[in-house]
Design goal:
Strand content: 15-25%
CATH architecture of one domain: Up-down Bundle
Distance between the termini: 27 Å
Shape: elongated
Structural class: alpha+beta
Helix content: 40-55%
Length: 495
């Protein structure tokens, strides 16, 4: 529980435990406790309880401004708020909108501007004016008539117009004549300015904070709201000095993040393809690369079945293991290629090459999945978001394992009929016999191993020193930041 207080307002934030079983009961108890609080008489607004739900997120601020002036007269304010009410009513009726929170809207009121000199002249105290207005402004039920339909009876004597107030008579002194209110005061319609004035681009404005419906995505909701705003501007505001300004558009950040993630994903896919063709032969590179779109498609199907959406978190999970999903396929393809280079026919090479590496590949996938299981047990506000990452990774790795063990061997077994006939006749093309450029590096690595394996204590000592050095770097030079801070587009000035 945290609280924040400032002049004229206070806020209390209550954060329930993530796995608390009686959430609705707790919220109801909080509402009852708040409604039973006794506050001082000078507190104007009753306290309210708002439950924050991430699915019902504020997506945009819609500001209605009067472009013809910076400070509005009563008539200009009345015109602005007339269109504001119309805009609000239509916004709320959009199926993509859950609610609209209004600010900068002034309540209309009737103001009695008393002339002090005339009060002295007629010997009328200000308290008497207040008392006469209060006594003559009434609306209250007095009962009902006992007939079949039982209609209610209400006494109504409301002074709800300046004209009625002007004709209200005030007693002047103990023996003086009654004076109409219009003789000692000016009665006008105006607005209660309150303590805050909302301005946008230097113009007074009425602001609407639009909250999306929980069943609709941010982008879909924003597209619907912006299309409606354009229609409203064209149909109602073309002939008046009033315009609409859109602020704090959440779609900007969402679209930018999705664009960055999609671009990074596409760039990663291209780099993986380049690496595959660089270090593998063309045949293996093509079939291994085909496993990437298959894995992604199978993951999307699994995510759809679990009710997931394509968002920053799920896309991040895909990118995390984008390069890992081809590891097992590379091992299978290389082992099959190794057997074929030794003269084993394509069918036997595909079968034996896959079965020989089945257990190592399975162990690799399982250990990688286990490494992400702790994300399920994280606590705090980020836990609900992080819990979507492991299932996506499990889908990706599971789809990759399935493709490597059951689909890739069939692809590697395929051979162009002409080349198959030449191989059976013992007439292998010279191009097929040409060594891959990376085999020279493999030869160098083999010589390196032959030289270092006899010197195991030296190698072990170097390994321990590197491990200690890396641990020292992590402990002294690196800081833990759960999520990097983004540069904000908002600047807040207070005084």
């Amino acid at each position: 529980v945290t609280s924040t207080s400032s002049q004229g307002s206070a806020r209390i934030n209550v954060e329930l435990e993530r796995d608390y079983p009686k959430r609705d009961e707790a919220i109801m108890e909080i509402r009852n406790a708040v409604s039973g609080v006794s506050l001082p008489e000078d507190v104007r607004d009753d306290p309210n309880v708002r439950v924050f739900e991430t699915s019902k997120k504020a997506i945009i601020d819609v500001a209605l401004i009067y472009t013809g002036a910076h400070l509005l007269t009563t008539e200009e304010r009345q015109l602005l708020q007339q269109y504001a009410i119309s805009l609000e009513n239509q916004l709320v009726n959009l199926k993509e909108v859950h609610s609209v929170n209004r600010s900068g809207y002034f309540q209309e009121e009737i103001q009695i501007k008393v002339d002090p000199e005339k009060l002295i002249r007629y010997n009328i105290p200000l308290s008497q004016v207040r008392r006469e207005v209060t006594n003559n402004h009434a609306r209250q039920p007095v009962g009902h008539i006992e007939v079949k339909n039982e209609p209610k009876v209400t006494i109504s004597a409301q002074l709800d117009t300046p004209e009625k107030l002007n004709e209200l008579y005030i007693q002047a002194g103990f023996e003086g004549q009654a004076i109409p209110l219009k003789e000692i005061a000016e009665v006008v319609r105006d607005f209660d300015k309150g303590k805050e004035i909302t301005k946008v681009n230097g113009h007074e404005a009425v602001m609407f904070n639009v909250v999306k419906n929980s069943s609709v995505g941010i982008l879909e909701s924003l597209d619907s709201v912006t299309e409606f705003i354009e229609r409203f501007r064209e149909n109602f505001l073309s002939d008046v000095p009033i315009d609409i300004v859109l602020l704090d558009d959440e779609s900007i950040d969402v679209r930018n993040r999705l664009s960055i993630i999609s671009l990074n994903g596409a760039l990663g896919f291209v780099l993986i393809l380049i690496m595959l063709f660089l270090f593998l032969n063309k045949r293996s590179g093509v079939w291994v690369a085909m496993g990437i779109p298959f894995t992604i498609c199978l993951t999307l199907i699994g995510g759809l079945m679990m009710g997931y959406t394509i968002n920053n978190t799920t896309l991040a999970g895909v990118i995390i293991v984008m390069g890992i999903v081809v590891d097992d396929a590379i091992v299978v393809a290389e082992n099959i290629g190794r057997l074929r280079s030794r003269g084993v026919n394509s069918r036997d090479a595909a079968i034996d090459g896959t079965t020989q590496v089945f257990l190592p590949i399975l162990a690799s996938i399982v250990t990688t999945c286990v490494a992400f299981i702790p994300l399920f047990y994280m606590e705090g506000r980020h836990a609900a978001m992080n819990k979507f990452i492991p299932p996506i990774i499990f889908f990706m790795l599971g789809a990759s394992l399935f493709e490597s063990l059951f689909i890739l061997p069939g692809h590697m077994n395929f051979e162009v009929p002409r080349l198959k006939k030449l191989r059976n006749d013992g007439k292998i093309p010279e191009k097929a016999l040409k060594r891959h450029w990376f085999e020279k590096i493999e030869d160098c690595y083999g010589r390196f191993l032959r030289d270092t394996l006899p010197k195991k204590w030296i190698v072990f000592t170097i390994f321990i020193l590197l491990l200690l050095f890396s641990g020292w770097i992590v402990k002294t030079k690196m800081n833990f930041v759960m999520f990097p801070n983004e540069e904000t587009r908002d600047i807040v000035l207070s005084g």
